[in-house]
C-alpha cells in the first residue's frame, strides 16, 4: 500500500512542537508542585509526547506513520543513541494508555514514579542529532522552536549535555534558560499519593 504524500515543512513543524513540549513540560511540572491535578495532566502530556518521539525515531512505521528517512533519506539513528527502554514503553502503555491489571501491579510495586529529565535526555539527544544533520531542517526547526516556545536548538543541546562537575553541584541537572533550576537529584520525579485505607 502506497502512503499518501505529506508536506515535509509541516512535518518538521510538528517535530519542533514535540521537541518543545519534551523540553518544557518537566520544568512546568516542577513549577506546579502542590497542584496534583495540573501536575498529573502535565505528566501525562509529557509521557504521550515522549512515546511519540520515541516511536518516530525508533520503531518501524505502520499505516500512515511518517519515518525520519522520509524527511532525510540518508539519516539514521547514530550508533550509541537510544530511545526509551522497552520497560519504560511498557510502563507508559500500562500506566497511561490502558486500564489494566498490570497498571495496578506497577502502582502496588511503587513503579508509578517517573524521572522526567532522565526520560527526555535520550529523546532530545536523537532529535537534536536529526535536526542538526541538515541545514534546511535545522533552520525550519529552529524557526518553529523560536516562534512557538522561545527556545533554540542550542538550548536543547545545553539541556542534553551534562554540566561538568566543576561548574555544577553534585546531582544538579541542566535546565533550560528562563526556567527554574532544580538542584535535587530526583528533579521531576512523580510520586503518586498513597491511598488512605
List keywords for this structure.
2% strand, 197 residues, 8 helices, mainly alpha, disordered C terminus
Give an overview of the whole structure.
- There is one protein chain.
- The chain has 197 residues and is mainly α.
- It has one domain (8-190).
- 56% of the residues lie in helices and 2% in strands.
- The protein contains eight helices and two strands, in the order αααααβαααβ.
- The chain has helices at residues 8-31, 36-58, 68-71, 86-97, 101-108, 116-132, 135-149, 153-160; strands at residues 114-115, 189-190.
- Strands 1-2 form a two-stranded antiparallel ribbon.
- Helix 1 runs antiparallel to helix 2 (36-58) and helix 2 (36-58) crosses helix 6 (116-132).
- The longest helix is centred in the first third of the chain and has 24 residues, at 8-31.
- The protein starts with 7 loop residues before the first helix and ends in a 7-residue tail after the last strand.
Amino acid at each position: 500500500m502506497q502512503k499518501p504524500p505529506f508536506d515535509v515543512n509541516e512535518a518538521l513543524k510538528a517535530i519542533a512542537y514535540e521537541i518543545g513540549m519534551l523540553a518544557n513540560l518537566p520544568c512546568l511540572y516542577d513549577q506546579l508542585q502542590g497542584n496534583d491535578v495540573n501536575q498529573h495532566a502535565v505528566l501525562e502530556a509529557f509521557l504521550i509526547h515522549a512515546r511519540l518521539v520515541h516511536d518516530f525515531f525508533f520503531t518501524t512505521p505502520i499505516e500512515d506513520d511518517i519515518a525520519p528517512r522520509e524527511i532525510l533519506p540518508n539519516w539514521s539513528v547514530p550508533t550509541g543513541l537510544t530511545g526509551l527502554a522497552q520497560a519504560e514503553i511498557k510502563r507508559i502503555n500500562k500506566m497511561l494508555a490502558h486500564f489494566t491489571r498490570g497498571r495496578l501491579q506497577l502502582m502496588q510495586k511503587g513503579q508509578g514514579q517517573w524521572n522526567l529529565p532522565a526520560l527526555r535526555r535520550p529523546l532530545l539527544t536523537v532529535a537534536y542529532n536529526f535536526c542538526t544533520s541538515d541545514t534546511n531542517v535545522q533552520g525550519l526547526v529552529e524557526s518553529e522552536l523560536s516562534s512557538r516556545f522561545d527556545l533554540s536548538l542550542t538550548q536543547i543541546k545545553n539541556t542534553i549535555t551534562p554540566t561538568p562537575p566543576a561548574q555544577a553541584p553534585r546531582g544538579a541537572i541542566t535546565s533550560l534558560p528562563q526556567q527554574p533550576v532544580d538542584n535535587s537529584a530526583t528533579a521531576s520525579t512523580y510520586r503518586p499519593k498513597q491511598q488512605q485505607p
